[in-house]
Fold:
Amino acid sequence: MKKTILVAGATGNLGKRISKALIEKGANVKAIVRHSTDSEKIEALEKTGVTVLQIDMNDCDAIANACEGVTCVISAVAGLDSVIIDLQKQILEGALKAGVPRFIPSDFCTDYNNLITGENRNFDLRREFKTQIDVTPIKVTSIFNGCFADILMYNTPILNMKEKSIGYWGDKANWKLDFTTMDDTAAFTAEAALDDTAPRNLQIASFQVSPNMIFEQVKQANGKDFKIHKISSLEDFAVYIKRQRAENPAGENELYANFQQGQYMYSMFMAQHTELANSRYKDLSWTSSLDYIKTFVK
Structure:
């Protein structure tokens, strides 16, 4: 008998990939979206075989009705406290009311469990929702994928194609950073949603690569030596981020404010996935760092 999975945030970049991966694995997939959702996004989901339900996300009964017969809810929503805490709480309450046995929250980041509260705003929001969901009877699985590999394309200090530079903080030129492609994250999430034995926390990474390794692989990809350099100490980086945040109060209302981007990079150099669950599902294949770098380094 096919399992039915409900996806919230299915019109987003990750959510639609998760929905597609579930369909490919033979699951029935429902997606809940707001009445105001773009009709083209709805049609695109429906063409892949997803049943799209337009509902009032503030109506717990409507969410509960959508959750009837569902074995797992996947939340792939993105936002600040009104989404990560308030909206997810509404979805959770609807799932509980419908008797859904399992829930995958919208963590999809570095494993924040060993990080200090206050060092990453967006992680703190997820941590707060965790305290709420963990006191309910629903079985929870968080998927920690490190950083989405796409960031390597966007000229961050870690890899800046325009400046031909590779940067790191502290004495961590050999510190391996956790990266996972969106497709690999989606495929793993689909497997976990269909796996009733999935544990509370699952760490994954398509690849773990250090700044020194990035230097070597960029050279393999295009034959060029980029400048690799220490940007500052981690302590100075933390001070800089706090000052940047204080000087831009408007950033508190921005999902990817400059200070938040800094906080994320700081977290990447402070936490590392040491218990990878990549081998849990045997049919999955994982993108290598060199293969990924070759897709955009010419």
